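Batch job 17 of 40 flagged for manual review because the log was empty.
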Amino acid sequence: MSFLLDPPMLVVSGVLIERGLPPEQRDVAEAATLGVFFGTSFGLYHNVPGLGLLWRPFRSQNGRDFMWNSGVFGVRTDQLRWPMHALAGAVFATYPFFLKLGRRLGRLGR
C-alpha cells in the first residue's frame, strides 16, 4: 500500500467487486475494501509497529517512507512538514474515487 500503488490496486479491486460478486454483496465488499486500504495505509503512514512486512521489501526506511516513495522516489520523509501531510490527506481522500472508478469500469466491460 502506497500512494503510487494504491490507486491502481483500488481500481482493480473495484472491477473485481463488480464482476465477481452478486449485486447484493458489492456495497459491503466496497466498504470492506476501503476499510482495509485506509487501515493499512494510515498504519503505514503513522509507522504503526508490525507492518514492516509491507515496506521492508521495498528497502524503505519505515512505513511513511514507503507510502511516499514506494522504493522509487526520493521524498525525504524524515523532514516532512504540514504541507506534505496535508497533501497526504488529499491523496487519501481520493481512495473512494478510484474504487468507484473500478466498479464503473467493471460494469462497462460486461
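Reviewer: the log was empty due to a logging misconfiguration, but the result itself is present. Residues 6-108 form one domain. Unflagging and moving on to job 18.
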